[in-house]
Amino acid sequence: MAGSETHYTLPLPVFDRPVRLLVVVAPYYKDIADNLVAGARAVAAQCGADVEVVEVPGALEVPTAIAMAERLAKYDGYVALGCVIRGETTHYDTVCNDSSRAISLLGLQGACIGNGILTVENRAQAEVRADPAGQNKGGGAAAAALHLIALSRNWAGQTKGIGFRA
Ligand SMILES: Nc1c(NC[C@H](O)[C@H](O)[C@H](O)CO)[nH]c(=O)[nH]c1=O
Ligand SMILES: CC(=O)[C@@H](O)COP(=O)(O)O
């Protein structure tokens, strides 16, 4: 790890055929969301991926929209973006946990999803995490989706098949 990095980052995958990414963003905090999308777009561009962006009202709607898109069989992967900032009530926990859980369940069903929904205590924490020149969590979520797409493509056709003997 070099300089001010806080964690190791895998090199981006290389693709030999087109990649279609859908970014599903909740612009509940619009400036934060805009930065997350900018970071995701920049990383997608580095891999030559095509990007479509759709907006939903809040983080809770993000996995629902991804599930709807997955049924279209049109995208190779998804980037979930948004920001949840703790308020006065327990609603914060519901929005954080349910959006995250639903995204994870979609992933276990085979969707290639990077989760870039920020779950923070205050706006300052969100700003540094969304900033493409800061922690760039939007870019990180795009990279995660791209890595899963690459893994899934590399493994396609490598099943044991009927009658396989080790
Ligand atoms: N409080 C935040 C929300 N809340 C809204 C929910 O996500 C949802 O849209 C509503 O309950 C209707 O189903 N959403 C965020 O993205 N961020 C928040 O901080
Ligand atoms: C994260 C939330 O759900 C939040 O913004 C709602 O705020 P509150 O708990 O004050 O209603």
From TrEMBL:
Pathway(s) per entry: Cofactor biosynthesis; riboflavin biosynthesis; riboflavin from 2-hydroxy-3-oxobutyl phosphate and 5-amino-6-(D-ribitylamino)uracil: step 1/2
InterPro entries on file: LS, LS/RS, LS/RS_sf
Keyword Transferase: yes
Alphabetized GO MF terms: 6,7-dimethyl-8-ribityllumazine synthase activity
Keywords from the UniProt entry: Riboflavin biosynthesis, Transferase
EC numbers on record: 2.5.1.78
UniProt GO cellular component terms: cytosol; riboflavin synthase complex
Catalytic center residues: 91 (proton donor)
Reaction(s) the record says it catalyses: (2S)-2-hydroxy-3-oxobutyl phosphate + 5-amino-6-(D-ribitylamino)uracil = 6,7-dimethyl-8-(1-D-ribityl)lumazine + phosphate + 2 H2O + H(+)
Binding residues for (2S)-2-hydroxy-3-oxobutyl phosphate: 88-89, 129
SUPFAM superfamilies linked to this entry: Lumazine synthase (SSF52121)
Residues reported to bind 5-amino-6-(D-ribitylamino)uracil: 28, 59-61, 83-85, 115
Biological process annotations from GO: riboflavin biosynthetic process
First-tier enzyme category under EC: transferase
Keyword match rRNA-binding: no
Membership in a protein family: Belongs to the DMRL synthase family.
Its biological purpose: Catalyzes the formation of 6,7-dimethyl-8-ribityllumazine by condensation of 5-amino-6-(D-ribitylamino)uracil with 3,4-dihydroxy-2-butanone 4-phosphate. This is the penultimate step in the biosynthesis of riboflavin.
Protein name: 6,7-dimethyl-8-ribityllumazine synthase
Organism: Paragemmobacter kunshanensis
